[in-house]
Amino acid sequence: MERSLEEMRSAIREEVSGSFDFSKEIDDREMYELIDRAISVSLRHRPVSLEDRKKLRMQVFHSIRKLDVLQHLVDDPTITEIMVNGTDNIYIEKNGTIMRSDVRFDSRSKLEDVVQQIVSSCNRVVNESSPIVDARLENGSRVNIVLPPVALNGPIITIRRFPDKPITMERLIGLGSISEYLRDYIGTLIKAGYNIFISGGTGSGKTTFLNALSDFIPKDQRLISIEDNAELQIRGVPNLVRMEARNANVEGCRPITIRDLIKSSLRMRPDWIVVGEVRGDECVDMLQAMNTGHMAMSTGHANSAEDMLSRIETMVLMGMEIPLAAVRGQIASGIDIVVHLGRLRDRSRKVLEICEIEKDIDMSTGKINVNTLFRFEETGVDEAEKIIGKWRKTGELKATSKLVSAGLSLPAYPG
Q: Does 290 share its domain with 349?
């Protein structure tokens, strides 16, 4: 019967599409009326339950106005990732587990239509000559698309769905991602104006954590967020400016890069600059901002806090040719704290390290000195096979001048 419903859906969609009056704009209510009439005609002599009729109605509407078979996956708040590998192989991540979905596209052309619908909605372009693009959906979900000839079994769509409401620091505490003491500790550092960099692997929760940290920024300060694709859900900051990079398009518009936006933001009287993620030479301008009196936060991919510093070195050298010692000096001077996140084997996400970046360079090795302040240590697993542990204090913050200037003090360690 399910296969029969798929055939009926295709036939009804074709009938509805053929009845469009392209001389006027059709709103959603009129679209549903067209679909209802087509269903009544198509199913006049077929015994179909009311539940299947409702399912057909919604599927046809999604195939015309929304993302076809992907729409109900996008609307499901329990799904965090959708991975489309061609027309038949669609996988989802739900509750930390990847599983194959039972939905599929009717044809490759329909999948290609969905691809173009996604990119056009955010003024992006993807085709054979430019087969890779990052985009976003209306609900803020992050989308990456790769087309043939690069994707041999494509088109490939990867959708990272974010919560409808930003996850707060209190929620992260409830999930065991961070402790109350560390929340207060990091919050005090942000209020004092320490520059913070968040590192972690894919899916470790960097963007979520950055959102939560933004709540500690004083509400009377001006914040400028800069992203490749707008994903941050910063709330509660009245003086907020949001900027998004732009790719070049077929109309001849030149690209606006993260570097361009950071340079422009410095002329916009920012107190805080939040860069969603640094991946390349824009790291140069982010460090310049940090070293010219601006407070900043950003994220990046790395396997540890120290690895993140090595990656930042590489990204800076991609943008300018200067001695490595000078690069390390800029990093040590600009970044105050690195918070490293990780995803453990039980699928939980946790703060694994909080490190202070010391301002002096190790003269014997030429490397940046890292003072690890806190580290998560496993103590066992519970009955549900969930990892339990605690955050152990391993060092004292050495650079306290910003705390003194702000008239703040760190919370007492509970032991």
A: yes
